[in-house]
Amino acid sequence: GYFAESGGGLVQPGGSLRLSCAASRFTFRSVPMSWYRQAPGKERELVSSISATGGTTHYADSVKGRFSISRDNTKDTMYLQMSSLKPEDTAVYYCNTPTSSFAWGQGTQVTVSS
């Protein structure tokens, strides 16, 4: 596969998690990347994006101020630092390019519950 997401888990409301996306089989450092999520019964939605160099980022309004996207092009890895988590953040989180250029990975489950 192209992506291996990790770092999900069960966390209480208000807690934090750091997700990782390890990429392979393409030139990661040249490609903008995005985090997506899909909650049960809902469509997959864009959460955050980052430019190839990491200098430009974008966030969905629902996560702005709580999530932070970053990347390490020396490790072909992207991250999503999630803080002040809410139950509505519960979803499977995926990574891909902003145009979903590659096959999806398995994702990593994030569950926010007390």
Explain briefly what this protein structure is.
With 114 residues, the protein is mainly β. It is 0% helix and 46% strand.
Structural commentary:
By secondary structure, the protein is mainly β. The protein contains no helices and 10 strands. It has strands spanning 3-6, 9-11, 17-23, 33-38, 45-50, 57-59, 67-72, 77-82, 91-96, 108-112. Strands 2-10-9-4-5-6 form a 6-stranded mixed beta sheet, with no helix packed on it. Strand 7 and strand 8 form a beta hairpin. The model has no long low-confidence stretch (mean pLDDT 97).
Please write out the topology.
Elements: E1 3-6, E2 9-11, E3 17-23, E4 33-38, E5 45-50, E6 57-59, E7 67-72, E8 77-82, E9 91-96, E10 108-112
Parallel strand pairs: 2-10
Antiparallel strand pairs: 1-3, 3-8, 4-5, 4-9, 5-6, 7-8, 9-10
